[in-house]
Write a structure and sequence with these properties.
The complex is a heterodimer of chains A (348) and B (305). Chain A has 348 residues and is mainly α. Chain A has a single domain, classed as ABC transporter involved in vitamin B12 uptake, BtuC (Orthogonal Bundle), CATH 1.10.3470. Chain A contains 13 helices and 3 strands, in the order H-H-H-H-H-E-E-E-H-H-H-H-H-H-H-H. The longest helix of chain A has 27 residues. Chain B has one domain. Classes of the chains: A mainly alpha (348), B mainly alpha (305).
Chain lengths: 348, 305
């Protein structure tokens, strides 16, 4: 039999799939012995993993900085949960409703990404960073002032104050600054795991395709890519819209794990948190993003014994890790243990 | 007359944004990094001034000077410890470090000074004795029979902003250090070859930016007198957008961007909606960037192939 030969990328991708499945299996087996605080964090961890992987697609693979990824998460969370609440009677089966909510959330987030992408992705430079930052803030203030209700004649919306004028038996879904209350918690760890797997499949297939190679060509040298006939805007758009759709799905998963969700949950700090996962995990390295997202979500919990000092310790850990990973002496030291990497060529 | 009132308070808020934006724009111009911890330096400055004045009952002027000194030292120390080792690192690594520093400052403030909001003392008041012999505390001047109300804070803020702008423009144009700064922002390698101490210049930039942040913190908290450890973050983000708005790296751009952002914000609050004012501000930013990608006064950099 011919020996199955896989190239390095494929091996790495299978390793990532394998580790995620292994982690899921172990956590499922250990389910009885997990502490309740850790159990409650399983779904948020899955959501942050999806966020980190999707942001890594924008930052690591496309090479554009996004400072408003939480905006897409918010977009997905609010539209997806609205869909789930509105369809509560129509689709009684929770898993099916979850899937519909995920699709709706992802679709709306993709639409938002597309609308932002049209003008911005034509420009070069750090504009995406600024515009996504602005987008995150805009989305936050809009959802803080949006009122959506549902009654027998359909959805009603109003901005700033509650003018939805619902009929008898109608239900207010989004209540402005109160956010969405009374969500049925239909996110499960299994749903989170499946979403992580779907995200990985989508991202790996995109990256390892013709389109993915075009996207990476744009990242490495835009002018060279353009001169060999790569349609810059199209491929940038492809990566960015995929990334925002996945972030929207992550938002749905995240929101469905809590009974109430408010727009302020998805602020600038959340965007930055996800960016921290991506950079710590390594740009373009999906497995790194997954590990960083899981570890850093657990870390504040693990630092509970420091109580008041835990966020301070978190900040110090963050700074020290960045200083250590970029220290030339340490880098050269570890570079010697890596086979296949020329140790002399460390300068970036 | 209400329009004029709004315009004046917009210019006052804009002046504060402009002073903060200067710190962003100068550091970006020279070190090519987004110093996200800048907003938290503002908060530290405001706290120092608050404690100096209300706990140790020092005169306000001493409080401001003390705040400036502490912030300047803080800026230099942060630069030396956290940013200098990363001079050669990719810009995203520096960005994350800056975020780490921002978390660090916020949480240190939380531990040192607790999350209870502090009410910032009113510095700019005059006391006079009216006809009935009562002491009247005034915090502003009234024109046109009280229809136009200008508080002293507003006047001081605008004057301070003008002084800083003129001073900084003269500094960068005429002093040796200022010239070194401009040289570094143009080409660090060439500047070093000409015998300019690049590291020293970058430290100096952080020192100036942080000192200005202290002034901005005191002015901000005089106008909006609630002081919590997260006071600096939202003005920080807005001032950063102001710097982008005016063209990042440009000092007059920071002034123009800050003023416009302040005026737009106050007008949006007054005429559109209080809650949606942030959305309006950022929407205007997006539109401006689409029309003029380099910002209002930014230099369009030609691309070399």
């Amino acid at each position: 039999m011919k020996k199955l030969k896989l190239n390095q990328t494929t091996r790495r991708n299978y390793l990532t799939y394998g580790l995620v499945i292994l982690a899921y299996a172990i956590l499922q087996i250990m389910n009885g012995s997990l502490s309740s605080s850790l159990k409650g964090m399983l779904v948020p961890i899955c959501a942050y993993v999806v966020m980190a992987v999707s942001l890594n697609l924008t930052v690591g693979v496309l090479g554009e900085l996004s400072l408003g990824h939480a905006g897409f998460m918010s977009m997905g969370a609010f539209t997806g949960v609205t869909a789930a609440v509105a369809l509560q009677d129509l689709i009684p089966a929770a898993p099916l409703r979850m899937i519909v909510a995920l699709i709706v959330g992802a679709a709306f987030a993709a639409l938002a990404g597309f609308l932002i992408g049209i003008p911005v992705l034509r420009l070069n430079g750090d504009y995406l960073a600024i515009v996504t930052l602005a987008f995150g803030e805009i989305i936050k203030s809009i959802f803080n002032n949006l009122y959506v209700g549902v009654d027998s004649s359909g959805l009603h919306m109003s901005l700033l104050s509650d003018n939805t004028n619902l009929e008898e038996g109608g239900k207010l879904i989004i209540g402005g600054p109160m956010g969405i209350g009374g969500i049925q918690k239909i996110s499960t760890f299994t749903a989170g795991f499946l979403l992580v797997m779907v995200t990985l499949v989508v991202v790996f297939h995109l990256v390892n395709s013709r389109a993915g190679r075009a996207i990476m060509a744009i990242r490495d040298n835009r002018i060279a890519a353009e001169s060999v006939g790569v349609n810059i805007t199209k491929y940038k758009m492809m990566a960015f819209v995929t990334s925002s759709a996945l972030a929207g799905a992550a938002g749905v998963l995240f929101a469905m794990n809590y009974s109430t969700i408010v727009a302020n949950k998805f602020d600038f700090n959340t965007s930055i948190l996800v960016l921290v996962f991506v950079v710590l995990g390594g740009l373009g390295n999906m497995l790194g993003s997954i590990i960083a997202a899981a570890a850093l979500t657990i870390l504040p919990e693990a630092l509970r014994q420091f109580s008041d000092y835990r966020m301070l310790v978190y900040a110090i850990v963050l700074i020290l890790v960045m200083l250590a990973t970029n220290n030339p002496t340490l880098k050269a030291f570890f570079g010697r243990f890596k086979p296949g990497k020329r140790s002399g060529k460390e300068a970036a | 007359m209400t329009f004029l009132n709004f315009l004046i308070s917009g210019i006052s808020l804009g002046s504060i944004y402009a002073i903060i934006a200067l710190g962003y724009t100068m550091v970006y111009g020279i070190a090519k990094m987004l110093n996200f911890a800048h907003g938290d330096v503002i908060m530290v400055g405001a706290y120092i001034c608050f404690y100096a004045v209300s706990r140790f009952s020092l005169p306000p002027v001493v409080g401001v000077i003390l705040a400036m000194l502490v912030c300047t030292v803080l800026g230099i120390v942060v630069e030396r410890l956290a940013y200098k080792p990363l001079r050669q690192a990719p810009s995203l690594a520096v960005l994350i470090t800056a975020i780490g520093v921002s978390y660090f400052l916020q949480n240190s403030a939380l531990l040192l000074w607790s999350s209870n909001p502090k009410v910032f003392p009113a510095f700019f008041t005059t006391e006079s004795v009216d006809a009935a012999g009562k002491t009247v505390t005034k915090n502003g001047i009234q024109l046109f029979d009280g229809r136009l109300n200008i508080s002293y804070v507003t006047i001081v803020t605008i004057v301070v902003c003008i002084i800083i702008m003129v001073g900084l423009t003269l500094f960068t144009a005429h002093t040796k250090m200022g010239k070194a700064m401009r040289a570094c922002s143009e080409d660090k390698g060439a500047a070093q070859l000409m015998g300019i101490n690049v590291n020293g210049t970058i430290s100096m930039t952080f020192a100036i930016g942080s000192g200005l942040a202290a002034i901005a913190g005191v002015l901000l908290c005089s106008a909006y007198p609630t002081l919590v450890p997260t006071t600096g973050s939202m003005p920080g983000i807005k001032a950063f957008t102001a710097a982008v708005f005016g063209g990042i790296g440009s000092i007059p751009g920071a002034l123009l961007g800050g003023l416009m952002l302040g005026v737009i914000e106050i007008f949006a609050k007054a005429y559109i909606s209080t809650q949606l004012s942030d959305a309006v501000v950022f929407a205007v930013l997006i539109v401006v960037l689409l029309v003029k990608p380099a910002g209002l006064l930014g230099k369009q950099v030609r691309e070399k192939v």
